[in-house]
Design brief:
The complex is a heterodimer of chains A (67) and B (132). Helices cover 12% and strands 24% of the residues of chain A. Chain A is α+β, with helices and mostly antiparallel strands. Chain A has a domain of 41 residues. In chain B, strands 1, 4, 7, 8, 9, 10 and 11 form a seven-stranded mixed sheet that branches. Chain B has a two-stranded antiparallel ribbon with strand order 2-3. In chain B, strand 2 and strand 3 form a beta hairpin. At the A-B interface, strand 1, strand 2, helix 1, helix 2 and strand 3 of A face strand 4, strand 7, strand 8, strand 9 and strand 10 of B.
Chain lengths: 67, 132
């Protein structure tokens, strides 16, 4: 699958809820899975520092494809 | 209240009783279920920024990491204003046991691409259930 670059932006009115395809857990049954600790899973994760406007709810983050 | 496609920040994420930094997650599924005998009603991917340019190249070379470019964030940890969604890790939560805030959402086409990738392309994945 070709992943396109996607980007984040703060948006205003484009937050309408559409129908999203929820993850189908049945499709994961045939895949190999392992249970790992949060500590292990998050060891190379660097939290995103959102702006105050985002954290206060004044602005919403929208993730969309790069144009 | 969150729904599929939302970006949330989990406020009280903890491991072994120790609070971990506030992390951002993408809501993939909000149906109730059980895993290892534990109730959950939220499955998410975590979002991450990059530590540095070297790590960025390394992370983006891995197919399970979806690149994102935050346009309007005031500050991102590391030296680059971009990040990624770690698709091969599924974090299980019980909404009644966590505090979270919805800060945004993915556009439908991107979200469905992410779901399609997880369902069709990933050979294996990791499950994180110690928050339940």
């Amino acid at each position: 699958m070709d992943k396109k670059n996607i980007r984040l932006k703060k948006g205003g009115n484009a937050m309408m809820h559409k129908k999203f395809k929820s993850l189908d857990l049945g499709k994961l049954n045939s895949k190999k899975s392992t249970i790992v600790s949060s500590e292990k899973a998050l060891e190379d994760i660097y939290p995103i520092n959102w702006s105050k406007n985002v954290l206060s709810g004044k602005k919403k983050v929208i993730v969309e494809f790069s144009k | 209240m969150c729904s599929v496609g939302d970006i949330i920040i989990v406020e009280n994420y903890s491991h072994n009783g120790i609070n971990i930094n506030k992390h951002s997650f993408i809501v993939l599924n909000d149906d109730a279920g059980q895993i290892q005998g534990l109730d959950y009603n939220l499955i998410c991917n975590v979002m991450s920024s990059f530590k540095n340019e070297e790590q960025k190249k390394k992370k983006l070379s891995y197919p399970g990491n979806f690149p994102i470019v935050p346009e309007d964030c005031d500050s991102i940890q590391g030296n680059d204003k971009s990040g990624y969604i770690k698709a091969e890790q599924l974090y299980y939560f019980n909404k009644e046991k966590i505090q979270y805030v919805v800060i945004g959402r993915l556009k439908e086409d991107i979200f469905n691409l992410l779901i399609e990738f997880i369902e069709e392309e990933l050979d294996s994945f990791e499950q994180i259930i110690d928050n339940l």
